[in-house]
């Protein structure tokens, strides 16, 4: 059978991968497990030998594959296989109860391997058993209440209790960055007292990344200092100046005639976008 773990949340995906490997090792005393990076030369032939050869001491086998969708038998692997060949081998394993293939990749599939995405397992399944067929589990980034629950639980596991304001702050700072969150909480648990408040996090210099569209809205403030502050933060984001200019045109349609004149001046080389944006804000 094949177990496919996929999605951008690499931390949670890796945790599940390690959980499956640990479960197999516990049951099989560490026998019958192989790791194959298909981006490396001769790895594919080693994988073929591993799944086809039988041993009385290895009644069950677990092959852990990496670079399944990215290597594609290219120069890194010496061109020793094609996606079609890999597809045939993987399809064969779906019918073998004694062979399990474990794949963990950011992307779900590629053209010749799209059969991998046809089956799914409930995201809260704790144990992925051996058998035949295909099981997939997605690890998208958590959001909302689920993300905050994850942040809170991980903090508790590391001996830190986050007060509500601190919890929401960390959840916002590290949204879509589970690895960053995990590293930060482990550091906080070692450095700070166990009952973490928002002021403790602020002392560490943590801050929420500026929101691009929120800053654009700040350019429409009636107060000059707020408009200038929003523009300065936009510059610090290193967003392309033409992008900021065009988004302002979209957000402030009543200034389109003025913006059109500025656009002509920029394209003729008489002004640059930074000068135009400052002039608009003032």
UniProtKB/TrEMBL annotation:
<keyword id="KW-0808">Transferase</keyword>
<dbReference type="GO" id="GO:0006261">
    <property type="term" value="P:DNA-templated DNA replication"/>
</dbReference>
<dbReference type="InterPro" id="IPR027417">
    <property type="entry name" value="P-loop_NTPase"/>
</dbReference>
<dbReference type="GO" id="GO:0009360">
    <property type="term" value="C:DNA polymerase III complex"/>
</dbReference>
<dbReference type="GO" id="GO:0003677">
    <property type="term" value="F:DNA binding"/>
</dbReference>
<keyword id="KW-0235">DNA replication</keyword>
<dbReference type="InterPro" id="IPR005790">
    <property type="entry name" value="DNA_polIII_delta"/>
</dbReference>
<protein>
    <recommendedName>
        <fullName>DNA polymerase III delta N-terminal domain-containing protein</fullName>
    </recommendedName>
</protein>
<keyword id="KW-0239">DNA-directed DNA polymerase</keyword>
<dbReference type="GO" id="GO:0003887">
    <property type="term" value="F:DNA-directed DNA polymerase activity"/>
</dbReference>
<keyword id="KW-0548">Nucleotidyltransferase</keyword>
């Amino acid at each position: 059978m094949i177990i496919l773990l996929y999605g951008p949340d690499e931390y949670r995906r890796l945790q599940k991968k390690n959980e499956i490997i640990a479960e197999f090792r516990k049951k099989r005393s560490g026998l019958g497990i192989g790791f194959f990076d298909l981006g490396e030369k001769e790895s594919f032939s080693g994988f073929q030998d591993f799944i086809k050869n039988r041993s009385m001491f290895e009644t069950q086998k677990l092959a852990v594959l990496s670079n399944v969708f990215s290597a594609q038998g290219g120069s890194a692997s010496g061109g020793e296989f094609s996606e079609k060949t890999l597809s045939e081998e993987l399809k064969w394993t779906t019918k073998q109860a004694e062979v399990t293939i474990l794949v963990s990749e950011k992307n779900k599939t590629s053209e010749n391997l799209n059969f991998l995405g046809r089956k799914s397992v409930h995201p809260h399944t704790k144990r992925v058993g051996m058998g035949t067929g295909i099981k997939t589990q997605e690890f998208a980034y958590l959001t909302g209440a689920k993300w905050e629950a994850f942040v809170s639980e991980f903090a508790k596991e590391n001996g830190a209790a986050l007060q509500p304001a601190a919890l929401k702050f960390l959840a916002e700072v590290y949204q879509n960055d589970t690895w960053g969150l995990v590293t930060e909480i482990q550091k906080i648990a070692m450095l700070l007292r166990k009952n973490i408040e928002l002021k403790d996090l602020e002392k560490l210099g943590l801050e929420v990344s500026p929101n691009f569209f929120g800053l654009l809205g700040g350019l429409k403030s009636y107060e000059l200092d707020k408009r200038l502050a929003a523009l300065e933060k936009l510059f610090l984001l290193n967003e392309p100046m033409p992008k900021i200019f065009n988004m302002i045109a979209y957000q402030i349609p009543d200034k389109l005639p003025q913006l059109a004149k500025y656009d002509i001046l920029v394209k003729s080389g008489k002004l640059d976008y930074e000068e135009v944006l400052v002039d608009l804000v003032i």
